[in-house]
Write a structure and sequence with these properties.
Blueprint (H helix, E strand, L loop, with lengths): L6 H11 L18 E2 L10 H6 L4 H4 L6 E2 L2 H45 L2 H31 L6 E5 L8 H20 L5 E5 L4 H9 L9 E2 L4 H4 L7 E4 L15 E5 L10 H9 L2 E3 L3 H4 L10 H14 L2 H8 L11 H6 L8
Parallel strand pairs: 3-4, 3-7, 4-5, 6-7, 6-8
Antiparallel strand pairs: 1-2
This protein binds S-adenosyl-L-homocysteine.
Length: about 350
């Protein structure tokens, strides 16, 4: 090599000396200055190339590697990345321009349409647009009023969200989803319920916030504390709904407050809500499923199914119809199936 070679010339000479398609990082390039990379060379299957390229220990691997010139492959990779980034940017700009063009065209078409109209037509068209706008605003306002009217409903239901610590993260997410269904069903119901979410201070509150940050604006009473503290004046009216109760519910009354356990546990925790109600000295009852619906498997329903049943029963005052409407067909058994024979049709829990 000539003694007076510049660093760049040395680099070029070294790169040119590489055989075409040389996939390996070449240690001989370490001695020359030039473009550098601080990333460790990627390990390849077998790890052979990596071992040859670096003699670092695993501990040293976490430290930034001393500046080394780029290998031919690294330069190729870098060029590829740059080309990809440029392509992405160009595509974004193209999309933006297209969007702008579309909105310009729509505006121009609208202006042309207005231009082509007679004064009378234009006035009629504008009046129509105004009426549409007002109708949409009125509908939104009515929906808002209906939602908040739920808070004054004579029927009260509590969703007890104190069980987050007994559920996996996935179960908490699933519960959060069920609560969203519950809220949505309540806003659409013929007779909405006054809903309390209690025990929001725990894991379930967090999961709900994560999955649906807007829940804080829902027309429900949000309570960090337990229903015992949130509704002290109604302690005597509380009825915990639990499939494990020996008492069967006959009707929903405004004079009672029904609690649903915010629980997704695949019945891992048998009797949990029943025991909680007994310990707290509050009444409990199960839904009258066994007399009104032949079901396959378990009589334990999900939280949103229970809420749907309450909404349907308050509206229809007919258990057969309410259960039929709220329990998915796959949970309902055909009459006189083997399942009936096995369970004597008495709704033994079988999970
Ligand atoms: N092992 C849990 C089951 C959770 S199911 C428990 O001990 O409760 C979710 C909730 O829905 C229950 O806590 C209960 O409030 C309600 N629920 C489900 N099936 C029911 C039924 N057949 N009767 C009354 N409430 C029921």
């Amino acid at each position: 090599m000539p003694a007076r070679m510049s660093a760049d010339e040395k680099n070029e000479a070294a790169a040119a000396a590489l055989p075409e398609g040389d996939g390996e990082f070449t240690p001989t390039l370490w001695s020359v200055t030039g473009p550098t990379e601080t990333k460790r060379p990627e390990s390849r299957p077998g790890g052979d190339g990596d071992a040859r390229a670096t003699h670092e220990t695993d501990a040293a691997a976490d430290e930034p590697v001393a500046a080394v010139p780029l290998s031919k492959n690294a330069r190729k990779r870098l060029a590829k990345q740059e080309a990809w980034a440029a392509k992405k940017k160009a595509k974004k700009e193209e999309e933006k321009a297209l969007k702008q063009q579309k909105s310009d065209e729509a505006r121009a078409a609208f202006a042309a349409k207005m231009e082509a109209m007679t004064d009378a037509e234009r006035a009629e068209y504008e009046a129509e647009r105004k009426a549409n706008r007002e109708r949409r605003m009125k509908e939104a306002e009515e929906a808002k009023v209906k939602k908040s009217a739920a808070l004054r409903s004579p029927y009260t239901v509590v969703l007890d969200l104190e069980f987050g610590d007994l559920m996996t993260e996935k179960e908490c997410r699933s519960m959060a989803k069920q609560l969203t269904y519950c809220y949505s069903a309540n806003t659409k119901a013929a007779v909405p319920l006054c809903m309390y979410f209690t025990g929001l201070g725990g894991e379930l509150g967090e999961a709900l916030l994560k999955s649906n940050p807007g829940y804080k604006n829902w027309a429900v009473h949000h309570k960090e504390e337990s229903y015992l503290d949130a509704l002290p004046e109604r302690r005597g009216d509380l009825v915990y709904l639990t499939a494990d109760s020996e008492h069967e519910l006959t009707e929903f009354k405004p004079s009672e407050v029904y609690i649903i356990g915010g629980f997704v546990d695949k019945n891992r925790h048998k009797n949990l809500t029943l025991n909680k109600a007994n310990e707290q000295g509050i009444r409990h009852a199960r839904l009258p499923i066994r007399d009104h619906l032949k079901m396959t498997g378990t009589h334990i329903l999900t939280v949103n199914q229970v809420l749907d049943i309450i909404l349907a029963q308050i509206e229809l005052k007919d258990w057969d119809k309410s259960l039929e409407r709220s329990v998915p067909e796959r949970k309902q058994a055909k009459e006189n199936t083997e399942e009936d024979g096995k369970n004597g049709g008495d709704g033994e829990l079988s999970e």
